[in-house]
Write a structure and sequence with these properties.
Its cofactor is Fe cation. By secondary structure, this protein is of the alpha+beta class. It has helices at 17-26, 37-49, 51-56, 80-86, 88-97, 126-130, 182-189, 257-260; strands spanning 4-5, 28-31, 58-61, 67-73, 103-113, 121-124, 140-146, 157-160, 171-174, 177-180, 194-197, 204-208, 213-215, 224-233, 285-286.
Length: 288
Amino acid sequence: MSDVFTLSDTGDFFVSTSVQNTFNENGYVIVRGLITKDEITKVKDCIEQSEDIKANAFGRADANGRTSRLCVWNRAGNDVSGILARIQKVAGTMQQLLGGDEIYHYHSKLMMKEARTGGAFVWHQDYGYWYNNGCMLPEMGSIFIPIDKCVKENGCLQVLKGSHKMGRIGHALTGDQAGADLERVGMAKTLFELVHVELDPGDVLFFHCNLLHTSSQNNSDLRRYVIITSVNKRKNNPLQEHHHPQYHPLKMLPNSALLECDLFTSTEDKGFMDPTEDASHKIKNLKS
């Protein structure tokens, strides 16, 4: 079963039965060229010129002391990076893949692995964190949108295909990051295919919150910037307040809204996250 899909002859993308079955079976799908060249250029200009991102970025060290920078915001906002998370072909596709129930913007982040210095991210499941935030159901997902080319050399995402079927497993602290139980990950590697998700700017990866994934250090001369937008279902509204938001309407937009937007700084509060308030990476021992 192929995990890669392309646009229709008219340049549109639809969640067909084949797409849905692939997502359900593999825990992810890849859509080539979902974001056009002009659109991704606008997003790139936005993140590189945004004073908000510069002011709110912080580092996260791996177990070997190498650091990647990230910037996290809880509300989409109305700037270019926020519109990207709200357009139909991004948010609407994820909503369909998760079954069609209403979703909301849980958070977005810009992940920055600089050339020759970017750190690794340990094996983990996103729901390994989010369950601890009071999200009781694994009915959540993430949308991985590369701004730069993502290849093995610069630390592209790696996934264990189908590993979401294992359900949530235990997580514990490794460096500044909370990672999945390595013994269980080792066993999972004997059952599930390891896939290096190599993507071009504008390709999009949609993946389930229980999919095991990791990424290695960037030892190349290629920068690796990606935006990851995570969504939750309205019916899965967290049962406790934490550093990510409770349900609020997504206000989905037509695809045309991205190129029509000229704001590189949102006039709406994006709720940039203070890293000292992030409890996710401070998990000491989260058992399944």
